[in-house]
Amino acid sequence: MFEFGALSEILIILIAALILIGPKELPRVLYQCGRWLQKIRHFSQQLGQGLDEYVDEGIFDEYVETQNKKHLKTSSKIKTSKKKTARKEKDE
Predict the structure, then answer these.
(1) For residues 38, 39, 41 and 42, what is the CA-based torsion angle, rounded to 10 degrees?
(2) pTM
(3) Residue 71 belongs to what domain range?
(4) Where are the transmembrane segments (predicted)?
(5) Distance between CA atoms of 79 and 49, rounded to whole angstroms?
């Protein structure tokens, strides 16, 4: 449709916000949005660091191994139960 750059899109959003919110409330709203963005960035940074530590300590590898073992056990149980039901059906 229209080809706008990122700067022009931001400008359009700011103009719409100025019209909808009003010039008195706009600085407070922008300040609050900045605080939310700061909290989101801080949270994502902490999450990334936590995941890095989790992987570096080898805990992730242990988790994957246990999940694979659980998956193998449940899939073998399902196969065994299917074989048993197939045998019962043959016998009947």
Answers:
(1) 110
(2) 0.48
(3) 6-78
(4) 6-22
(5) 41
The number of domains in the chain is 1
Q: Which helix (H) or strand (E) is 82 found in, with range?
A: helix 59-91
Question: Half-sphere exposure (CA, 13 Å, Cβ side) for 79?
Answer: 6
Instruction: Tell me if 11 is assigned to some domain.
Output: yes
Task: Please provide residue 77's backbone torsions phi and psi, each rounded to the nearest 5 degrees.
Answer: -65, -40
The answer to whether the Cα torsion of 5, 11, 15, 21 is positive or negative is positive
Are 26 and 17 a contacting pair, CB within 8 Å? yes
- Tell me the pLDDT of the chain (92 aa) as tens digits: 456 677 888 888 889 988 999 889 989 998 999 999 999 999 999 999 988 887 777 777 788 888 888 777 776 656 566 555 665 555 55
